[in-house]
Write a structure and sequence with these properties.
Elements: E1 4-6, H1 7-20, E2 24-27, E3 33-35, H2 43-52, E4 68-69, H3 85-96, H4 99-108, H5 113-120, E5 128-131, E6 143-149, H6 161-166, E7 169-176, E8 189-192, H7 196-210, H8 218-225, H9 227-239, H10 255-260, E9 266-267, H11 271-275, E10 288-297, E11 314-323, E12 328-330, H12 331-344, E13 350-353, E14 358-364, H13 369-378, E15 392-394, H14 408-418, E16 425-428, E17 442-446, E18 452-456, H15 464-475, E19 500-501, E20 505-512, H16 514-523, H17 526-529
Parallel strand pairs: 4-5, 5-6, 15-16, 16-17
Antiparallel strand pairs: 1-13, 2-3, 2-12, 6-7, 7-8, 8-9, 10-11, 11-14, 13-14, 17-18, 18-20, 19-20
Helix pairs in contact: 1-2, 1-12, 3-7, 4-7, 7-9, 8-9, 12-13, 14-16
Length: about 575
């Protein structure tokens, strides 16, 4: 749960990867682990092995309701508002054990087997975020449902004081993520922690009830019906629960009636909540050594024989973080990490997978930090935000996916060697954008020719109308900027004329080789790049007030395809 695996489970994954697959292990942007190269005849035995190690869902249906994202620092971050691990366990059990169907039963008075079957048909990307306010958290992903811990100053004032003292409060929303500085608020309300599992269940039930065959995520029904209609439906479900004041749906005229039926455990947004913004995060903190939690007594047996005991034995433990290059590890490297944790960790011995496709080792005595960092490097991890490869994201590419137009991983390695600084660049071998759950600062999108089109999220603004018109033009074959392999000039578009793509931003160049893409990216100034986005590797750079200028023409007479394997 939350990307945490024990060292025994990590060892099991490494051995299973070699026994049943090709020894390649990939970390995903949802803090999950994927094994590659599994032959069909080995699938059943592999699944049984992983389930026995505690790495499977409780049922086939529950597997589709298990995308619950926590911060990789959940429970150990000294700056967090809440330790959400216990609540996360309750929430996950509620989603996996069929309580969604039970909500339907309570309302209709009959069994709802169709709902349970519906859970199994949820998109594998359907996700819920539970945010405890940690200093390292993924805020860029758009989730179907999200909850974010509120500071005491923002908790609702209308419920009885006794209720406020009985639990903590969360802002919540759908089809998005907690609002941060300079983002509009789409908060639907505040919910007491005691009601979070029921609310999540009601929202999933609402999606299953209101969706059409074309709706894959909650955002699809929000786009079709509006967030108010979706929320009112969920509020009616909640009001009918035995834990609240049960009422008949026909008697409920709207959202406020539903809220009143919940004894003040669910509140509409007031001025303070609408003004609330989630505290900033430091995503560079996924690299290197950082303090965690409260002070503990460090035993001499946990220290390396070469460590100094001059410092006080009462010390903060640390976590040590590193990035798997392009999210990929070899089985031997995962085994090395498990051995490192076994040797140096205090207390719980585990690895934490991050949504940036990296690994954290918590519970490290400060005197051992240098040895653990050295061990991470030996296991192939990137331990500094200054390395260009640590800022790149790439999908499997055509070496492992039939839909891919290019070997995006090999091209990403080549790009990293040519960049003179770290830039947040996503290399996608096709339009599906499997490796990045949200638009990154730059995207190199492979074309059928094997060349790449370059997109930038900060050049111009994409309205839904722009995106629909661009999609319509592309579907009708009217895209005037379509490029062929024989073109000799690579146009960089000004923001007013560039092609918009809702997944990647605006296209600023087309038909590029990796060499040309690197040359172009290296020529951009910091102002043109605009490193103020959460997707950037440098969150400490101050906010700028400029608007990105229109970019100039970029042309090259060298259009021959290049291999970067």
């Amino acid at each position: 749960m939350g990307g945490v695996i024990s060292i025994e489970q990590a060892t099991c994954v490494a051995r299973a990867s070699k026994r049943f697959g090709n020894g390649v292990i990939e970390l995903t942007n949802r803090a999950n682990i994927q094994l590659r190269g599994i032959a069909p005849e080995h699938e059943a035995e592999l699944i049984a092995t992983l389930v026995q190690a505690g790495l499977g869902a409780t049922s086939d249906q529950a597997d589709e309701a298990s995308n619950l994202l926590l911060s990789p620092l959940a429970g150990i971050c000294p700056h967090a508002l809440l330790d959400v691990r216990s609540l996360a366990q309750s929430l996950l059990q509620r989603l996996q054990q069929g309580s969604i169907a039970a909500i339907g039963t309570r309302i209709s008075g009959k069994d709802t087997e169709g709902t349970q079957a519906g859970i199994a048909s949820l998109s594998p990307k359907f996700s819920v975020q539970l945010d405890g306010g940690e200093s390292l958290a993924m805020l860029g992903h758009h989730h179907d449902i999200w909850f974010s811990a509120l500071p005491r100053a923002v908790t609702p004032s209308s419920p009885p004081t006794s209720l406020l003292q009985q639990g903590n409060w969360f802002a919540f929303g759908i089809a998005g993520s907690p609002p941060t500085i300079a983002q509009p608020s789409k908060v639907l309300g505040a919910v007491n922690s005691s009601l979070v599992p029921d609310l999540a269940s009601a929202l999933v039930k609402t999606f299953l009830t209101l969706r059409t065959d074309q709706d894959r995520r909650i955002r699809d029904i929000v786009n079709r019906l509006g967030s108010t209609a979706v929320w009112q439906h969920a509020a009616r479900l909640l009001a009918a629960l035995p834990t609240g004041d049960a009422c008949d749906e026909s008697e409920m005229g709207g959202e406020d009636d539903s809220l009143e039926a919940l004894n003040g455990r669910l509140m509409p947004p007031d001025a303070a909540l609408l003004a609330w913004r989630r505290a900033p995060v430091d995503i560079a903190a996924r690299f290197g050594a950082h303090e965690q939690g409260a002070k503990v007594s460090v035993s001499a047996s946990a220290l390396s024989s070469t460590s100094s005991l001059a410092s006080s034995p009462l010390s903060f433990l640390q976590y040590i973080g590193g990035q798997a290059p392009l999210g990929r590890l070899r089985a031997e490297e995962l085994s090395q990490l498990a051995s490192l944790a076994q040797t140096f960790q205090q207390g719980e011995r585990s690895l934490r997978v991050t949504p940036w496709q990296g690994i954290l080792l918590p519970n490290i005595a400060p005197a051992n930090a240098q040895w653990v960092q050295s061990g991470l490097r030996e296991a192939g991890l990137i331990d500094s935000p200054l390395q260009p490869l640590g800022a790149l994201v790439a999908c499997t590419g055509n070496s492992g996916c039939a839909k891919g137009h290019a070997d995006s991983k090999a091209d990403a390695y080549a790009l990293a060697e040519r960049l003179d600084r770290p830039l947040a660049v996503h290399l996608s071998a096709c339009e599906r954008s499997c490796a990045a759950a949200h638009p990154m600062l730059f995207t190199l999108l492979a074309q059928p020719s094997g060349a790449y089109d370059l997109y930038h999220t900060r050049i111009g603004q994409i309205s839904s109308g722009d995106a629909k018109r661009d999609a319509s033009n592309a579907n009708n074959g009217n895209n005037a900027s379509e490029h062929t392999e024989t073109q000799t000039e690579h146009q960089v578009y000004a923001s007013a004329d560039a092609s918009a793509n809702p997944r990647f931003g605006r296209r600023i160049a087309a038909g590029l080789t990796i060499d040309q893409a690197a040359t172009y990216l290296n020529t951009l100034s910091d102002a043109e790049i605009d490193l103020t986005t959460e997707a950037s590797i440098h969150p400490s750079i101050p906010l700028s007030t400029h608007s990105s200028p229109a970019l100039s023409m970029f042309s090259s007479t060298d259009t021959s395809p290049k291999s970067h394997a």
